[in-house]
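SAMPLE LOG
Freezer: B-3
Tube label: C17
Construct: single chain, 459 aa
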Amino acid sequence: MNPNRRTFVGAAVVGALVAPLARGVSAQSASTDTVWVDDALPAGATMASDGGDGWNWISANPAPFSGSQAHQSGSSAGEHQHYFYGATVALPVAVGDILFAYVYLDPANPPGEVMLQWNDGSWEHRAYWGANLIGWGTDGTLNRRSMGALPLTGQWVRLEVPAIQMGLEGKTLNGMAFTLYGGRAAWDYAGKSGSSSPPPADETFVTSLDGGNNVAQGSWSAAGGYGSRTGPGANGGFAFGQGATALGGGAIAFGRSSLAAYTDTFVFGQGCQAHSDNGRAAGWACLSTGDQGYAHGHQASDRGIDGFEAYAHGGFGTNPETLGLANAQTGRTVLRVLTNNATATPLTTDGGGPGFNNQIRLPDKSSFVLQWLVVARDISSGDSRAWNVLAMATRGIGAGSTAVFAPVITNVANSPGAIAWSVSLTIDTYNGAVQLNGTGSVGKLIQWVAAMIDGENVG
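STRUCTURE (predicted):
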Protein backbone atom coordinates (compact mmCIF):
# COMPACT_ATOMS: atom_id res chain seq x y z
CA MET A 1 0.00 0.00 0.00
CA ASN A 2 3.01 2.31 -0.18
CA PRO A 3 2.21 5.41 -2.34
CA ASN A 4 4.98 4.46 -4.69
CA ARG A 5 6.42 4.63 -8.15
CA ARG A 6 3.78 2.86 -10.22
CA THR A 7 2.94 4.64 -13.48
CA PHE A 8 -0.51 5.39 -14.83
CA VAL A 9 -1.05 7.84 -17.66
CA GLY A 10 -4.21 9.87 -17.18
CA ALA A 11 -5.78 12.94 -18.69
CA ALA A 12 -3.78 16.17 -18.68
CA VAL A 13 -5.26 17.95 -15.69
CA VAL A 14 -4.38 20.75 -13.31
CA GLY A 15 -4.77 21.92 -9.71
CA ALA A 16 -4.52 25.02 -7.57
CA LEU A 17 -2.29 26.57 -4.95
CA VAL A 18 -4.25 28.79 -2.61
CA ALA A 19 -2.55 30.67 0.23
CA PRO A 20 -5.13 32.39 2.46
CA LEU A 21 -2.46 34.09 4.58
CA ALA A 22 -0.47 35.40 1.64
CA ARG A 23 -1.00 35.37 -2.11
CA GLY A 24 -3.99 33.50 -3.53
CA VAL A 25 -6.71 33.92 -0.91
CA SER A 26 -8.96 30.87 -0.85
CA ALA A 27 -12.38 31.32 -2.36
CA GLN A 28 -13.67 28.53 -0.15
CA SER A 29 -15.47 29.22 3.11
CA ALA A 30 -14.64 27.20 6.20
CA SER A 31 -18.38 26.53 6.52
CA THR A 32 -18.18 24.31 3.40
CA ASP A 33 -15.24 22.24 4.67
CA THR A 34 -15.56 18.56 5.47
CA VAL A 35 -12.56 17.85 7.70
CA TRP A 36 -11.02 14.38 7.46
CA VAL A 37 -7.71 14.84 9.32
CA ASP A 38 -7.54 17.22 12.30
CA ASP A 39 -5.94 16.22 15.64
CA ALA A 40 -6.33 12.55 14.71
CA LEU A 41 -6.61 10.19 11.74
CA PRO A 42 -9.98 8.87 10.59
CA ALA A 43 -11.11 5.64 12.23
CA GLY A 44 -9.61 2.43 10.89
CA ALA A 45 -6.62 4.15 9.27
CA THR A 46 -3.27 2.38 9.14
CA MET A 47 -0.29 4.73 9.61
CA ALA A 48 2.92 4.31 7.61
CA SER A 49 5.97 6.27 6.54
CA ASP A 50 9.21 6.01 4.58
CA GLY A 51 12.39 7.91 3.80
CA GLY A 52 13.14 8.59 7.46
CA ASP A 53 9.79 10.30 8.06
CA GLY A 54 7.15 9.42 10.63
CA TRP A 55 3.92 10.50 12.32
CA ASN A 56 4.97 13.19 14.77
CA TRP A 57 2.06 14.99 16.43
CA ILE A 58 2.94 18.47 17.74
CA SER A 59 1.20 21.27 19.64
CA ALA A 60 3.81 24.03 19.17
CA ASN A 61 6.58 25.22 16.84
CA PRO A 62 4.48 25.86 14.89
CA ALA A 63 1.15 26.23 16.68
CA PRO A 64 -1.51 24.12 14.92
CA PHE A 65 -3.68 25.79 12.34
CA SER A 66 -6.75 24.13 13.83
CA GLY A 67 -7.48 22.19 16.99
CA SER A 68 -4.79 21.15 19.46
CA GLN A 69 -2.36 19.18 17.25
CA ALA A 70 -0.70 19.23 13.86
CA HIS A 71 1.53 16.50 12.40
CA GLN A 72 5.09 17.28 11.37
CA SER A 73 7.34 15.63 8.82
CA GLY A 74 10.82 14.55 9.76
CA SER A 75 13.83 16.42 8.39
CA SER A 76 15.42 14.19 5.74
CA ALA A 77 17.24 14.46 2.46
CA GLY A 78 15.49 13.21 -0.65
CA GLU A 79 11.93 11.89 -0.74
CA HIS A 80 10.27 11.30 2.62
CA GLN A 81 6.63 10.99 3.62
CA HIS A 82 4.11 9.86 6.16
CA TYR A 83 0.73 8.57 5.07
CA PHE A 84 -2.30 6.50 6.02
CA TYR A 85 -4.59 4.10 4.21
CA GLY A 86 -7.51 1.77 4.81
CA ALA A 87 -9.64 4.26 6.76
CA THR A 88 -13.06 2.81 7.52
CA VAL A 89 -14.41 6.35 7.91
CA ALA A 90 -13.78 7.11 4.26
CA LEU A 91 -14.13 10.43 2.42
CA PRO A 92 -16.64 10.40 -0.45
CA VAL A 93 -15.81 12.94 -3.14
CA ALA A 94 -18.67 14.55 -5.01
CA VAL A 95 -18.92 16.61 -8.17
CA GLY A 96 -17.58 20.09 -7.54
CA ASP A 97 -15.56 19.16 -4.44
CA ILE A 98 -12.11 20.58 -3.76
CA LEU A 99 -9.49 18.58 -1.85
CA PHE A 100 -7.38 20.58 0.60
CA ALA A 101 -4.75 20.47 3.31
CA TYR A 102 -2.85 23.10 5.25
CA VAL A 103 0.96 23.11 5.25
CA TYR A 104 3.60 25.08 7.13
CA LEU A 105 7.04 25.01 5.50
CA ASP A 106 9.97 25.31 7.91
CA PRO A 107 11.63 28.64 6.97
CA ALA A 108 15.00 27.35 8.20
CA ASN A 109 14.76 24.09 6.26
CA PRO A 110 12.22 24.33 3.42
CA PRO A 111 11.69 21.36 1.10
CA GLY A 112 12.40 21.46 -2.62
CA GLU A 113 9.01 19.89 -3.40
CA VAL A 114 5.69 19.44 -1.61
CA MET A 115 3.34 16.67 -2.75
CA LEU A 116 -0.12 15.51 -1.73
CA GLN A 117 -1.42 12.06 -2.72
CA TRP A 118 -4.84 10.47 -2.33
CA ASN A 119 -5.83 6.79 -2.30
CA ASP A 120 -9.13 5.57 -3.74
CA GLY A 121 -7.77 2.03 -4.09
CA SER A 122 -4.83 3.44 -6.04
CA TRP A 123 -2.23 6.06 -5.14
CA GLU A 124 -2.15 7.41 -8.70
CA HIS A 125 -3.57 10.84 -7.78
CA ARG A 126 -0.72 13.26 -7.04
CA ALA A 127 -0.35 17.03 -6.96
CA TYR A 128 2.94 18.81 -6.29
CA TRP A 129 4.35 22.27 -5.74
CA GLY A 130 7.93 23.36 -6.37
CA ALA A 131 10.63 21.49 -8.27
CA ASN A 132 9.86 18.24 -10.10
CA LEU A 133 12.09 16.02 -7.95
CA ILE A 134 9.91 13.01 -7.06
CA GLY A 135 9.58 10.79 -10.12
CA TRP A 136 6.42 8.82 -9.33
CA GLY A 137 3.86 8.57 -12.11
CA THR A 138 4.05 10.53 -15.34
CA ASP A 139 4.59 14.27 -15.08
CA GLY A 140 1.84 16.37 -16.60
CA THR A 141 -0.90 13.83 -15.85
CA LEU A 142 -3.25 13.30 -12.92
CA ASN A 143 -0.73 10.95 -11.29
CA ARG A 144 1.97 13.66 -11.11
CA ARG A 145 0.80 17.17 -11.86
CA SER A 146 2.63 20.42 -11.11
CA MET A 147 0.66 23.25 -9.55
CA GLY A 148 3.32 25.89 -9.53
CA ALA A 149 5.72 27.36 -7.02
CA LEU A 150 6.27 26.25 -3.43
CA PRO A 151 4.03 27.81 -0.78
CA LEU A 152 5.47 30.64 1.27
CA THR A 153 7.50 29.55 4.29
CA GLY A 154 6.84 30.37 7.94
CA GLN A 155 3.05 30.52 7.74
CA TRP A 156 0.07 28.21 7.30
CA VAL A 157 -0.92 27.93 3.64
CA ARG A 158 -3.98 26.18 2.28
CA LEU A 159 -3.29 23.88 -0.67
CA GLU A 160 -6.35 23.22 -2.82
CA VAL A 161 -6.85 20.81 -5.70
CA PRO A 162 -10.21 20.56 -7.51
CA ALA A 163 -11.20 16.89 -7.38
CA ILE A 164 -12.19 16.93 -11.03
CA GLN A 165 -8.60 17.76 -11.90
CA MET A 166 -7.36 14.66 -10.06
CA GLY A 167 -9.95 12.30 -11.54
CA LEU A 168 -11.52 11.77 -8.11
CA GLU A 169 -15.07 13.04 -8.48
CA GLY A 170 -17.46 10.24 -7.59
CA LYS A 171 -14.68 8.27 -5.86
CA THR A 172 -14.26 7.39 -2.17
CA LEU A 173 -10.94 8.02 -0.46
CA ASN A 174 -9.41 5.77 2.17
CA GLY A 175 -5.92 7.24 2.42
CA MET A 176 -3.77 10.33 2.03
CA ALA A 177 -0.01 10.95 1.84
CA PHE A 178 1.99 13.98 2.96
CA THR A 179 5.19 13.93 0.94
CA LEU A 180 8.31 16.13 0.73
CA TYR A 181 11.62 16.20 -1.05
CA GLY A 182 14.15 17.34 1.53
CA GLY A 183 13.38 19.85 4.25
CA ARG A 184 10.62 19.78 6.83
CA ALA A 185 6.97 20.85 7.06
CA ALA A 186 4.00 20.63 9.40
CA TRP A 187 0.53 19.61 8.20
CA ASP A 188 -2.97 20.18 9.54
CA TYR A 189 -6.69 20.34 8.76
CA ALA A 190 -7.17 18.25 5.61
CA GLY A 191 -10.32 17.17 3.82
CA LYS A 192 -12.63 18.46 1.14
CA SER A 193 -14.82 21.49 0.53
CA GLY A 194 -17.76 22.20 -1.69
CA SER A 195 -20.82 20.19 -2.51
CA SER A 196 -22.03 17.86 -5.20
CA SER A 197 -25.14 19.99 -5.48
CA PRO A 198 -24.14 23.60 -4.82
CA PRO A 199 -27.03 26.01 -4.45
CA PRO A 200 -27.50 28.01 -7.65
CA ALA A 201 -25.82 31.39 -7.34
CA ASP A 202 -27.37 34.61 -8.54
CA GLU A 203 -27.48 34.91 -12.32
CA THR A 204 -25.32 31.84 -13.03
CA PHE A 205 -25.27 30.26 -16.46
CA VAL A 206 -24.46 26.60 -17.09
CA THR A 207 -24.36 24.88 -20.47
CA SER A 208 -24.53 21.13 -21.05
CA LEU A 209 -22.43 20.64 -24.15
CA ASP A 210 -20.75 17.26 -24.64
CA GLY A 211 -22.57 15.61 -21.77
CA GLY A 212 -22.75 18.45 -19.27
CA ASN A 213 -21.25 17.98 -15.82
CA ASN A 214 -20.59 21.72 -15.48
CA VAL A 215 -20.91 23.63 -12.20
CA ALA A 216 -21.22 27.41 -11.71
CA GLN A 217 -20.99 28.39 -8.03
CA GLY A 218 -19.95 32.06 -8.17
CA SER A 219 -22.58 34.74 -8.54
CA TRP A 220 -22.95 36.01 -12.12
CA SER A 221 -20.56 33.30 -13.31
CA ALA A 222 -20.71 30.96 -16.29
CA ALA A 223 -19.48 27.41 -16.93
CA GLY A 224 -19.58 25.59 -20.24
CA GLY A 225 -17.99 22.74 -22.14
CA TYR A 226 -17.49 19.50 -20.22
CA GLY A 227 -16.46 19.29 -16.58
CA SER A 228 -15.92 23.03 -16.28
CA ARG A 229 -16.61 24.92 -13.07
CA THR A 230 -16.49 28.22 -11.28
CA GLY A 231 -15.80 28.06 -7.55
CA PRO A 232 -17.66 29.65 -4.64
CA GLY A 233 -16.62 33.29 -4.51
CA ALA A 234 -15.66 33.33 -8.19
CA ASN A 235 -18.17 36.08 -8.78
CA GLY A 236 -18.18 37.09 -12.41
CA GLY A 237 -15.93 34.12 -13.22
CA PHE A 238 -16.02 32.36 -16.58
CA ALA A 239 -14.91 28.79 -17.31
CA PHE A 240 -15.33 27.20 -20.70
CA GLY A 241 -13.70 24.08 -22.08
CA GLN A 242 -13.12 20.51 -20.93
CA GLY A 243 -11.97 20.66 -17.30
CA ALA A 244 -11.65 24.46 -17.26
CA THR A 245 -11.72 25.95 -13.75
CA ALA A 246 -12.13 29.57 -12.57
CA LEU A 247 -11.67 30.06 -8.80
CA GLY A 248 -11.14 33.81 -8.41
CA GLY A 249 -13.54 36.71 -8.75
CA GLY A 250 -13.54 37.93 -12.34
CA ALA A 251 -11.27 35.04 -13.35
CA ILE A 252 -11.48 33.69 -16.90
CA ALA A 253 -10.41 30.15 -17.85
CA PHE A 254 -10.86 29.25 -21.50
CA GLY A 255 -9.47 26.01 -22.89
CA ARG A 256 -9.03 22.36 -21.97
CA SER A 257 -7.70 21.85 -18.40
CA SER A 258 -7.11 25.58 -17.97
CA LEU A 259 -7.08 27.06 -14.45
CA ALA A 260 -7.61 30.67 -13.39
CA ALA A 261 -6.99 30.38 -9.65
CA TYR A 262 -7.02 33.94 -8.37
CA THR A 263 -8.74 37.31 -8.69
CA ASP A 264 -8.94 38.67 -12.25
CA THR A 265 -6.60 36.04 -13.68
CA PHE A 266 -6.92 35.34 -17.39
CA VAL A 267 -6.06 31.95 -18.89
CA PHE A 268 -6.46 31.00 -22.51
CA GLY A 269 -5.26 27.69 -23.89
CA GLN A 270 -4.71 24.04 -23.10
CA GLY A 271 -3.36 23.21 -19.65
CA CYS A 272 -2.34 26.78 -18.80
CA GLN A 273 -2.58 28.14 -15.25
CA ALA A 274 -2.52 31.54 -13.53
CA HIS A 275 -2.25 31.71 -9.73
CA SER A 276 -1.65 35.33 -8.76
CA ASP A 277 -3.41 38.70 -8.95
CA ASN A 278 -4.12 39.75 -12.57
CA GLY A 279 -1.83 37.01 -13.86
CA ARG A 280 -2.15 35.83 -17.46
CA ALA A 281 -1.25 32.58 -19.18
CA ALA A 282 -1.89 31.71 -22.82
CA GLY A 283 -0.95 28.94 -25.22
CA TRP A 284 -0.12 25.45 -23.97
CA ALA A 285 1.09 24.36 -20.50
CA CYS A 286 2.16 27.89 -19.55
CA LEU A 287 2.31 28.96 -15.89
CA SER A 288 1.91 32.42 -14.36
CA THR A 289 2.48 32.78 -10.61
CA GLY A 290 3.54 36.44 -10.42
CA ASP A 291 1.22 39.40 -9.85
CA GLN A 292 0.50 40.94 -13.25
CA GLY A 293 2.78 38.27 -14.73
CA TYR A 294 2.34 36.85 -18.21
CA ALA A 295 3.47 33.47 -19.54
CA HIS A 296 2.67 32.56 -23.13
CA GLY A 297 3.62 30.24 -25.94
CA HIS A 298 4.40 26.65 -24.90
CA GLN A 299 5.65 25.70 -21.41
CA ALA A 300 6.69 29.23 -20.44
CA SER A 301 6.76 30.40 -16.79
CA ASP A 302 7.08 33.86 -15.26
CA ARG A 303 8.74 32.14 -12.25
CA GLY A 304 6.60 34.09 -9.78
CA ILE A 305 8.20 37.42 -10.71
CA ASP A 306 5.67 40.26 -10.56
CA GLY A 307 5.20 42.13 -13.83
CA PHE A 308 7.40 39.69 -15.79
CA GLU A 309 6.56 38.40 -19.27
CA ALA A 310 7.88 35.00 -20.36
CA TYR A 311 7.73 33.37 -23.78
CA ALA A 312 8.78 29.87 -24.82
CA HIS A 313 8.11 27.51 -27.67
CA GLY A 314 8.60 24.25 -25.81
CA GLY A 315 11.86 23.19 -24.21
CA PHE A 316 14.27 20.38 -23.42
CA GLY A 317 11.82 17.71 -22.29
CA THR A 318 9.96 14.69 -23.58
CA ASN A 319 6.52 15.53 -22.20
CA PRO A 320 4.82 18.47 -23.92
CA GLU A 321 2.25 18.63 -21.10
CA THR A 322 4.81 19.53 -18.40
CA LEU A 323 3.52 22.75 -16.87
CA GLY A 324 5.84 25.77 -16.98
CA LEU A 325 8.93 23.75 -18.00
CA ALA A 326 10.70 27.03 -18.87
CA ASN A 327 14.15 25.66 -19.59
CA ALA A 328 14.50 27.45 -22.94
CA GLN A 329 12.71 30.79 -22.86
CA THR A 330 13.02 34.55 -23.02
CA GLY A 331 11.66 37.08 -20.55
CA ARG A 332 11.22 40.80 -20.36
CA THR A 333 10.05 43.39 -17.86
CA VAL A 334 10.42 47.04 -16.84
CA LEU A 335 12.32 47.92 -13.66
CA ARG A 336 12.19 51.23 -11.80
CA VAL A 337 13.22 53.12 -8.68
CA LEU A 338 13.20 56.69 -7.37
CA THR A 339 16.37 58.03 -5.66
CA ASN A 340 17.46 61.26 -3.94
CA ASN A 341 20.94 60.24 -2.79
CA ALA A 342 24.26 58.93 -4.06
CA THR A 343 23.75 55.36 -2.84
CA ALA A 344 23.54 52.44 -5.26
CA THR A 345 19.84 51.45 -5.20
CA PRO A 346 18.35 48.34 -6.88
CA LEU A 347 15.68 48.78 -9.55
CA THR A 348 12.72 46.41 -9.13
CA THR A 349 9.57 45.54 -11.03
CA ASP A 350 7.37 47.47 -8.59
CA GLY A 351 9.78 50.24 -7.62
CA GLY A 352 9.96 49.00 -4.02
CA GLY A 353 12.72 47.44 -1.98
CA PRO A 354 14.22 44.24 -3.40
CA GLY A 355 12.47 40.99 -2.49
CA PHE A 356 11.64 37.54 -3.79
CA ASN A 357 8.91 38.52 -6.27
CA ASN A 358 10.19 41.79 -7.78
CA GLN A 359 13.68 40.93 -9.01
CA ILE A 360 15.18 38.89 -11.84
CA ARG A 361 15.67 35.57 -10.05
CA LEU A 362 17.53 32.66 -11.57
CA PRO A 363 16.39 29.07 -10.94
CA ASP A 364 18.85 26.37 -9.98
CA LYS A 365 21.13 25.03 -12.74
CA SER A 366 20.66 27.99 -15.06
CA SER A 367 22.58 30.40 -17.31
CA PHE A 368 21.05 33.70 -18.41
CA VAL A 369 22.15 36.42 -20.78
CA LEU A 370 20.58 39.75 -19.84
CA GLN A 371 20.35 43.21 -21.34
CA TRP A 372 19.06 46.41 -19.76
CA LEU A 373 18.35 49.69 -21.55
CA VAL A 374 18.48 52.22 -18.72
CA VAL A 375 17.43 55.85 -18.65
CA ALA A 376 17.56 58.16 -15.61
CA ARG A 377 15.98 61.59 -15.33
CA ASP A 378 16.10 64.37 -12.73
CA ILE A 379 12.41 65.28 -12.52
CA SER A 380 13.23 68.86 -11.51
CA SER A 381 16.02 69.90 -13.90
CA GLY A 382 15.43 67.41 -16.70
CA ASP A 383 19.06 66.21 -16.60
CA SER A 384 19.21 62.71 -18.07
CA ARG A 385 21.58 59.84 -18.75
CA ALA A 386 21.21 56.53 -20.57
CA TRP A 387 23.17 53.25 -20.56
CA ASN A 388 23.20 49.88 -22.29
CA VAL A 389 24.07 47.03 -19.90
CA LEU A 390 24.88 43.49 -21.06
CA ALA A 391 25.87 40.57 -18.83
CA MET A 392 25.80 36.82 -18.29
CA ALA A 393 24.63 35.35 -14.98
CA THR A 394 24.60 31.75 -13.73
CA ARG A 395 23.30 29.78 -10.76
CA GLY A 396 24.23 26.30 -9.58
CA ILE A 397 22.37 24.81 -6.61
CA GLY A 398 20.98 27.34 -4.15
CA ALA A 399 20.61 31.11 -4.22
CA GLY A 400 24.12 31.62 -2.81
CA SER A 401 25.68 30.18 -5.97
CA THR A 402 24.31 32.95 -8.20
CA ALA A 403 27.04 34.93 -10.01
CA VAL A 404 27.37 37.60 -12.70
CA PHE A 405 30.25 37.66 -15.19
CA ALA A 406 32.06 40.63 -16.74
CA PRO A 407 29.14 43.02 -17.31
CA VAL A 408 29.57 45.42 -20.19
CA ILE A 409 28.16 48.85 -19.24
CA THR A 410 28.09 51.36 -22.08
CA ASN A 411 27.20 55.02 -21.70
CA VAL A 412 24.72 55.90 -24.43
CA ALA A 413 24.42 59.64 -23.75
CA ASN A 414 24.15 62.13 -20.92
CA SER A 415 23.46 65.77 -20.22
CA PRO A 416 26.17 67.72 -18.31
CA GLY A 417 24.29 67.64 -15.00
CA ALA A 418 24.12 63.81 -15.02
CA ILE A 419 27.81 63.03 -15.54
CA ALA A 420 28.23 61.71 -11.97
CA TRP A 421 25.37 59.22 -12.17
CA SER A 422 26.17 55.54 -12.70
CA VAL A 423 24.74 52.04 -12.91
CA SER A 424 26.14 48.76 -11.60
CA LEU A 425 25.26 45.07 -11.29
CA THR A 426 25.31 43.10 -8.03
CA ILE A 427 23.99 39.73 -6.85
CA ASP A 428 21.31 39.21 -4.20
CA THR A 429 22.56 35.87 -2.85
CA TYR A 430 19.59 35.52 -0.48
CA ASN A 431 17.00 35.50 -3.30
CA GLY A 432 19.31 34.35 -6.11
CA ALA A 433 18.70 37.50 -8.16
CA VAL A 434 20.70 39.79 -10.43
CA GLN A 435 20.31 43.41 -9.31
CA LEU A 436 20.66 46.47 -11.53
CA ASN A 437 21.52 49.45 -9.34
CA GLY A 438 21.30 53.16 -10.00
CA THR A 439 23.48 55.74 -8.23
CA GLY A 440 22.34 59.34 -8.47
CA SER A 441 23.16 62.56 -6.62
CA VAL A 442 22.37 63.82 -3.13
CA GLY A 443 19.32 66.06 -3.07
CA LYS A 444 18.27 65.28 -6.65
CA LEU A 445 15.05 63.36 -7.17
CA ILE A 446 15.86 60.99 -10.01
CA GLN A 447 13.57 58.49 -11.75
CA TRP A 448 15.32 55.36 -13.00
CA VAL A 449 13.68 53.15 -15.64
CA ALA A 450 15.18 50.04 -17.27
CA ALA A 451 13.75 47.84 -20.02
CA MET A 452 15.14 44.33 -19.49
CA ILE A 453 15.19 41.34 -21.84
CA ASP A 454 16.90 37.99 -21.26
CA GLY A 455 17.60 34.56 -22.71
CA GLU A 456 17.20 31.68 -20.22
CA ASN A 457 18.87 28.27 -20.40
CA VAL A 458 18.02 25.89 -17.54
CA GLY A 459 19.13 22.31 -17.09
